[in-house]
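Annual report, structural modelling task.

Input specification for the flavin mononucleotide complex:
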Amino acid sequence: MDFISLVEARQSTRKFDPEKKVKPEDILFCLEAMRLSPSASNAQPYFFHVCEAEKAKQVAKATQSAGLNRFSTDAPVQIVICEAPYNATASLGARFRNQDYRSVDIGIAAIHFVLAAAEKGLGTCMLGWFDEKRIQEILGVSDRIRLVISVGYAKDEPLRRKKRKSLDQLTDFIANKEVSSSQ
Ligand SMILES: Cc1cc2nc3c(=O)[nH]c(=O)nc-3n(C[C@H](O)[C@H](O)[C@H](O)COP(=O)(O)O)c2cc1C
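The model returned the following structure:
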């Protein structure tokens, strides 16, 4: 698939087929795409836990409250993304420049993963609504948990038109325009 077709094909799946298992080699394909993603100072400050079977069900449950994410139970695989420490260079850069590169890096790694999944015909939904303490208990870790990705096959879910802001709302082009300084 060419890149734009892949970007258009990826959408958040909220109707998974509970009967259809995900092939381990497809998960490995997505993990390899994640592994090759760029990160600030090449720190790769993340760890991906692949949860399957009963663990996946437990993690899915921890993403459900206030009526949200009920669909995640039907996804056979849940990826839990933990934040790992910076390396020394990234840590210094972050402090010096007052930036948090870790969440940026995690977002980039996650998009590599979900686009690779779309390439394999898999459905994914990135989940930011979850009970962090509960997932830490399930996995026996104390790391910050930043994102969960539900993975499986979509069931009867047509491709939706993407609702997005216009390019004008999201971008501008600056060359010689006068810019008023706030400093
Ligand atoms: C960081 C992040 C957190 C998200 N959390 C949730 C979530 O908890 N539940 C959910 O149904 N969708 C969640 N989404 C999916 C977004 O709602 C979705 O990406 C957005 O509406 C655009 O739709 P699309 O992914 O189908 O293109 C999340 C997406 C991101 C990037």
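Helices lie at 3-9, 24-35, 53-62, 88-97, 101-119, 132-139, 167-170.
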